Amino acid sequence: MFLGIDLGTSAIKAVLIDAAGKVRATASHALSLSNPQPRWSEQDPHEWWQAAQSAIEQLLAEAGREGIAPRQIAGIGLSGQMHGATVLDKADRVLRPAILWNDGRCDAQCVDMESWPGFREITGNLAMPGFTAPKLLWLREHEPQVFERIAKVLLPKDYLRLCLTGEYATDVSDAAGTLWLNVAERRWSQRMLELTGLPQDAMPSLHEGNAVTGYLNPALAERWGMQRVPVAAGGGDNAAGAVGVGIVRHKQAMLSLGTSGVYFAVSDGYLARPEQAVHSFCHALPGTWHLMSVMLSAASCVDFTANLTGYADVPALLADAERTVARSNAPFFLPYLSGERTPHNDVHAAGAFTGLRTDTVRADLANATLEGVGLGLLDGIEAVDAAGLQANDITVIGGGSRSAYWTQMLADIIGRPLTLRAGGEVGAALGAARLAYLAAEPGAALEDVCEMPEITAVREPDAARHAYYREQRQPKFRALYRQLAGVYRVRGTT
Ligand SMILES: Nc1ncnc2c1ncn2[C@@H]1O[C@H](COP(=O)(O)OP(=O)(O)O)[C@@H](O)[C@H]1O
Ligand SMILES: O=C(CO)[C@@H](O)[C@H](O)COP(=O)(O)O
Fold first, then answer.
1. Distance in angstroms between the alpha carbons of the first and the last residue of the chain
2. Where are the domains of the chain?
3. Which of 178, 299, 306, 452 is the right S-S partner for 246, CB 3.0 to 4.6 Å?
């Protein structure tokens, strides 16, 4: 058995797979998110660790009910929300709340980074506020008393690794999102670290996703009745999500519907297209890279509208949306609740409902939300296509993939078949478990461990609906962003 742990933004998820790759148990524990100031997004790393322990203990209890003993677990793999800056002092004390991937406070620092010599050549990316390095520049400027005490900077899942093993380590897919990695060469960039004011030993050791980075510490192994199993490097949640559904070969593609919305296309060589905020990162398996478009609020927009309009929960919103006939002159929703990365790279972008009329009902707002997220995702997919990695078939994963209604609407908007696969809704934890498998059993064949799980459904695009979205909705959606962008931009900032 192999245990995968994914530190998502909304919850920690744990999954147990057997040697045939079948999911045998799952568990999760919700996480809270804090927005102490406009554009700030933070979480407490101590809460991550408490939630991880709770998810693991629930998982072991569920596995026990299936007759699986903790000693049967042969390896652990980690994945997590990318980019978050977890800063520790030399005694491994957390110095402040982690600044997350959807935090937009450090746009001024990004402008500085873009002027660094060699920046784009080394990192392959645009400097965007979600990434880790500009957050450290912000700390240097705004919280110097914190900055000078920093001994280590860890990504979210790597903080859990420290708690599990006592080791400082990361993997190349997650490290690529720091802007301290030379992405083509898969190594830390001394130059980018120096320009940030950090020594190389502030970084964890760097590994491929399927490498062993340490072993479960004796106290935890005893408490959970487990062996001191190896802990794999794992991957950033998108790379791990891709491994989980077998998206590991050139031009294969995946769409992740989590808090964020991510379109991920694999490349067998390094490729960089930063112009439209397309991310160029290493994949979690050796010798592979990927391009990615990232929407900062995707399924989280659906939670937002459900709360705002008083639905009991997301399934209630979805059911009502499905019952309501789409009208001509339907309202629009701009999904930029946390600003946007691809293609706009605009921290000032904001969400909006437009086109409201006296007869607008909340189901119209629900449908506008589902559609607005889809149109935003299409912008990102087209940006990746333009970089030369167009894929005809897209596998969908993440919490949002649970809705047949929404995934059909997305296929109609995108105009390509969307494939659902067994375990896809489990998301990145599945890939983390597969990376644990590869690390614990180096003789295992990659093609076997990383095969595509069985197809559970295919959403074929409806030609007439696709034409409607292309001709009627997409041009207006794009125009609305352009027209509203200036309204939300704060005077005196970029
Ligand atoms: N039945 C459902 N249909 C559509 N969306 C759902 C459903 N259940 C949960 N979700 C959405 O899934 C999202 C969480 O997905 P997940 O992949 O776990 O995110 P994260 O990795 O960011 O924590 C939530 O925003 C929630 O609205
Ligand atoms: O910032 C990115 C990728 O660049 C996000 O995709 C985060 O990695 C968070 O993921 P979810 O919690 O939405 O899965």
1. 50
2. 2-245
3. 452
Burial 281-302 (b: 16+ CB within 10 A, else e): bbbbbeebbbbbbbbbbbbbbb
Average confidence (pLDDT) over 163-183: 98
ipTM over 0.90: yes
Average of per-residue pLDDT across 388-400: 94
Determine the distance from the C-alpha atom of residue 425 to the mean position of all C-alpha atoms in its chain, rounded to a whole number.
14
User: What is the CA 408 to chain-centroid distance, rounded?
Assistant: 22
Which of these, 198, 170, 178, lies nearest to 133 by C-alpha position? Answer: 178
Looking from the CA of residue 81, the nearest atom of ligand 1 is: 21
Catalytic residue at 89? no
Q: Is 294 in the pocket of ligand 2 (CB under 6 A)?
A: yes
Both structure tokens of 124? 């392959």
Q: Mind listing the pLDDT tens digit for each residue in 419-468?
A: 999 999 888 999 999 999 999 999 999 999 999 999 999 999 999 999 99
Q: Tell me: is residue 82 an annotated ligand-binding position.
A: yes
Is the alpha carbon torsion for 62, 64, 67, 70 positive or negative?
positive
Q: Is 192 annotated as a binding residue?
A: no
Q: Give the domain 2-245 fold.
A: Nucleotidyltransferase; domain 5 (3.30.420)
Q: Which two tokens stand for residue 419?
A: 């494939």
pLDDT given at position 490? 57
pLDDT tens digits for 399-421? 999 999 999 999 999 999 999 99
pLDDT at 333 (0 to 100): 98
Q: No. of H helices and E strands in the chain?
A: 18, 24
Tokens 């639905």 sit on residue: 311
Packed helices 362-386 and 404-414: angle between N→C axes, nearest 10 degrees: 50
